[in-house]
Structures are given as structure tokens and as C-alpha cells.
What we know:
Elements: H1 6-9, H2 22-34, E1 40-44, H3 51-63, H4 77-83, E2 90-94, H5 101-110, E3 121-126, H6 133-144, E4 150-156, H7 164-167, E5 171-174, H8 180-194, H9 200-210, H10 214-227, H11 235-242, H12 247-259, H13 262-274, H14 279-299, H15 310-320, H16 325-342, H17 348-360, H18 368-384, H19 406-409, H20 416-423, H21 425-430, H22 434-441, E6 444-446, E7 452-457, H23 460-466, H24 469-483, E8 488-493, H25 494-502, H26 509-525
Parallel strand pairs: 1-4, 1-5, 2-3, 3-4, 7-8
Antiparallel strand pairs: 6-7
Helix pairs in contact: 2-3, 5-6, 8-9, 9-10, 9-11, 10-11, 12-13, 12-15, 13-17, 14-15, 14-16, 16-17, 18-22
Amino acid sequence: MAYTALYRKWRPDSFENVVGQEHIVKTLTNQIKAGRIGHAYLFCGTRGTGKTSIAKIFAKAVNCEAPIDGSPCNHCPICENLSNNRSMNIIEIDAASNNGVDNIREIREEVRYTPTEGKYKVYIVDEVHMLSQGAFNALLKTLEEPPSHVIFILATTEPHKIPATILSRCQRYDFKRISISIITQTLMKYLEEEKIVAEEAAIKYIAKVADGSMRDALSVLDQCIAFYLGEEITFNKVLDVLGAVDTSVFTNIVTALVEKDIKKCMDIMELVFVQGRDLSQFIMDLIHYFRNLIVIKSVGDQEATVEMSEENLEVLKQQGHSLTEEAIIYYIKAFSELEMKIKQASQKRVLIEVELMKLCQPSTESSLAGVMDRLAHLEKLVKEGSVHREVVVTQQPAITEPKAPKKKILKDAIPKDVKEAMLRFEELVSRTTGLEKAILTRAIPAYLEDDYLYIICEDEIQKNRLILPENTSKINEILGSLHEKNFKLKILTVQEYDTFAHSTKDITTAAHDAKNLFEELKSQINFDIQEI
């Protein structure tokens, strides 16, 4: 006897065997039990979710001589004939190859004749969205008022392409993607029946790759069984068959991106390439890894959102601490764009390596996202102490003096409130968040000869960000809560401040001291980012 593919062998023959579509099964069985059977149904959903299978079961159930709880008995002559394709009551039509007006006219002629056995003739039109406009128009009248012995079941993966006049005449049922856990449980049950040994981790990965399609999962499983005939199906064997990589590779590449280690990224890509892994699948899996990373960071390790082993989950949590949500989203966008590029590319490896280099060197990326990633990296370096900054802390618990021993430089001639704001500038920085915090971390408080508190930025990009009304308002609000005074702010670049300071002719003692302070702070913070 010829071999039967698993997805055909294990196609459900009753509603009880359908998995993942309980909401549809319940509705259809209730209709059959109550005798409230419609004349036209539209089954929508992605591939491999059970549209055709449920259509065939429904066709058997409405014709069955002794249905059991709304499901076909599979033992009566009608059910047996339908199961063995010996009945004329089920007519399957592939709309992709029979999409003309003449094909629909044939159906209109045929529906007038009553079924040879049973109660209903059931027309199952697969990929109905492929019908031409003329064919849809020809079908319209028949679909609206068919003979009482005819049922139409239209199946499609793209319901948005179906005219509204057709949609309004059908009962619509949307098929959900089947969850990874349900696919895993079902495959394990089938393997037990087939007497094949497999690791649960291997089956889980197959379920993840199937992307909600039971048919895809069974096809991949069939391929793995054939490749390792008579052997146990392990996780590594599944990776070999699919050309995929182990989760540890994604863990290592994320660590390399966080550390901005180009050599480590190149070594990982060399390993992936030498092992003959599929590079398109590699990028898709990497995007999914970042998706899990941001889910863990945002909503926690809920079973419904992240499905992986406890060991990998712990690694994911640890990596989540070293990345901001903005950085993860930036990586997802970058690799998603890369995925689109490499589909038709002949040098996939080169494109991936160039993208990794760009992500490890944010200074080469001129986009806003790249600038934000660059600033986030700088903030991380400052926090870790990689950027040398000399900080003197006084014994006064409420005030921390950053960046320089300011008490020696600041004179009484500087207004008292501005002096205090300069001394407590780190407190202002600590109360900000996001990109503003990253900019203020690299900024210097300053004073000339008026009553303004100056904030000196490194360049125009940072200055333009800070002078936005919502940001200056936030800074003033924080200053007000710290000092109980409304400050007047001036935000300048370091070049503007130098020009302004040197243009002052009658320099006061306060301004002179402020200039000395500014020069000392500037030499310690080192504005040259390229050297960091």
C-alpha cells in the first residue's frame, strides 16, 4: 500500500478530533442539533487551520443518518461513501483553477438537481477569493437564494478580496492560528500512535516553526521522520533538517550587540554560515527572540505570551536588564527591514554582517533611532564607570556634588540659588528619564553674569531636543521641586557658550569664576564621543 502523508492520515473525520477551533465546532454542532442549518458559509483563516477539514465533516454531519451530538457517526452508508469519496453529495471546487464565469454557470445548472442520497448537496469552494469579478457576479443570485437541498461553503485565506455582496450573504467563521502548546500535544499523541520516539523540545520547535498551522507542523514532522528514519527525533536533528540554529546562538548575538563587539558578531555569523544554516530562517528566529525579550521585559513570563524552557527563560530575563525597550524595538525594526532585503539578495551573509556592524557602531547610523541607541550606549557607559568622571561627594546627605570639586571654584559672587542648582545638577539628571536623561548626563551646568542657569550641550542635536517646550517645562518643574524657585534657563551648545563668554567685555568676578568652572568641567567630561 502506498505511503500516506501524516497530514492526510491524521485529517480529523469528526468534530471531536478537531483541535484549536472549539468556537467554530460548537456553533456548527449546535446548528446541526437544532436543525438551524444555513445555506452559505464563509470559512476564513490562515493555511492549515482546518477550514477544508471542518467543511468536509460538516458536509457529512448534515447528511448522516444517525449523527451523534451534532457530529457524523462515520458508520452509516452515507458517511462511509463520503469518507471514501464515493458520494456525489460533496463537490469540491478549486477556485484558483476554475475561476471563470463558465465554471460558475455549470454550478448554477447542477444545483437544480436533488442529491442522489442524503439530504444536502454541499459545494466546497476552496480559495474562493481567486474567482474573477464576473464569476462572483454569476454566483451572487444562486448564493442568495439556492435550492433548499444545497449548501455552499466558501473557504479563503484572504477574505478582504471577496466582494461585500458575497460576504453579506454568508455566515462568516474566522479560524484562529493554533497555539504552540496545542500543536505540540497533538503531534506527541500522533507520534505515540506511530510508535516514534521524539524529544518534547524538538516537537515544540516544530510547532513554533509551523506558525499556527497544523498541516505545516505535520509536514515538517514527516520530513524529520524520513530524514532520521528509525531514529529518535531530537532537537538538534530538527535544527539540521530545517537549517535553523540553537537558541544559544541568539543569546550570544544579543550579548555581542549589547557589548558592541563586532568581532564576536562576525564569529557567530561564521559559525552559522559554516554549519549551512538557512540565513532567512536565522533572521526570522532572531526577530522572534527579540519579540520574546521585549515581552518578558514589558509584561513578564506569562505562559500565553512566551513559550520556552525555564533555563532559556532565565537567560532572557537577565538579558532584559541590559537593554531598554526602545533599544529592543530598534533592533526588531532593523532586522525586520533586513529580512525583507535578503529575500531576493544573492549575498545574504554580507547584508547580515553589514547590519550587525552598523548596530555595533551606532555612530555610523544617522537616523533618529540610531542616535537614540548611541545615547543609550553612552548612558550605560557612564553608569558603569567606563567614562572617567571625577566625583566629589560632600558629607551633606541631601546634596551630591558631581563632576568636580566645585566649592573651591565657585565664589560668593555667583548668585546663591544658581550656585545651588549647579551643585545639585546630578539630582536634576536623576529625576529625568529616557533620551532627556542621556543628554543631561553629558551636559554641564554653567553661569555667566545674569540670573540665568545655563545648560551646555555637546551639539545642535542635543540642544534642539532639550529646547522643546515639553522638555524645558519638565526641567523647570524638577528644578522648582528641588529649590522652590522658578529658574530662567538658557540652553546652548559648547561652541555658542564659548563665543558668548569671550564676547563679554566687562567681565565680572562671578562670570570669570564661572568660566573657570566651565573649562574644568568640560575637560573632565570630554565631549568627544568618538573616543568613548
